[in-house]
């Protein structure tokens, strides 16, 4: 039977302080969970037995079960997790930089990692190029189900709690469609008694719900945003992201201009490059114009085809020419290196492959 108890990871420290008595226990519990990575309430040694028992009656600890893991040659690991109700989500552990040693073998800096987390099972937005969209929307994740993704992959990779990771909300789902869980998860990650991952290290990627970009800004959490722009004219953008009818390009640009951004940082615009649709220099020219006046950086993403997808991957030459045009016109621009290209790369693809395998078995 599906587990019905909430996970203790759903709560911020302040909320726990009202749930457990005396309040200082909340800080200790946070330490056991986020610094010692305990698997059960029973391991929380300085918590009185009665309270440990009460906690295990009321809550579960980690709501995720690792169903499947795929490791790529570049160190990227894709996880397929099962939630208490049997639904599945994906999380990706990305190695951004290798550890570096000097000639004597002394460690100069440790490897750098980013966790790509999901915020929903499925997605309501329905982008025409996205595999997650094909399965429709099932449900929002709770704050704890978001938090557990980072906790679990850190633990699974023996990544010490005080070693920093970056978080990108770029897995399955539209984070701003689940704003309450998202803001709570961001706060739990930031807590100094927990993982202490500052807002600066967290990037929320959105398909551009302008009104909710404003709301996220008002919450003043210090996080970065990345905008999935993908097109420079509204017709194509509406084909790719139907919601663009309600929140068009200009409304997104206006919301970005209102968003509180660290003065040393830039807003990231993701541009999915699709062969013969938006990979021409005319589009690059329009993009330069559109982003003028914004401290922006552009991340070009190769469209990643999957069986049955309507679009094609652009050529490397067109991608590089597009990038050069932007750079020559003063825009910072990178091409996303396809981490984990040898495993199911784009979000939603591992889940899809596994579910098809399951269907084939039945
Ligand atoms: N819903 C949010 C965050 C999750 S999607 C958003 O749309 O921004 C994360 C990123 O994956 C988005 O930029 C999305 O455009 C990209 N993506 C989706 N399907 C893709 C595919 N088939 N190939 C390459 N990138 C894809
Ligand atoms: Fe949802 Fe993002 Fe996929 Fe669009 S690209 S369907 S917003 S997950």
Q: Level of helix content?
A: 25-40%
**CATH topology annotation of the largest domain:** TIM Barrel
Question: Class of the largest domain, according to the CATH hierarchy?
Answer: Alpha Beta
Count of helix runs: 12
Mean pLDDT: 92
Along the chain, the helix and strand elements come as HHHEEEEEEEHEHEHEHEHHEHEHEH
CATH-defined architecture of the largest domain: Alpha-Beta Barrel
Helix-strand makeup class: alpha/beta
Query: For the record, what is the CATH homologous superfamily label of the largest domain?
Result: Aldolase class I
Textual characterization of the structure:
This protein is of the alpha/beta class and 362 residues long. The protein has helices spanning 13-19, 25-34, 49-58, 131-134, 143-156, 179-190, 210-218, 234-240, 249-258, 281-290, 316-328, 349-361; strands spanning 65-71, 77-82, 88-97, 100-101, 107-109, 112-116, 120-122, 137-140, 166-169, 202-206, 224-228, 267-273, 296-302, 332-335. Helix 1 (13-19) packs across helix 2. The structure holds S-adenosyl-L-homocysteine and iron/sulfur cluster. The site of iron/sulfur cluster has 11 residues, from helix 4.
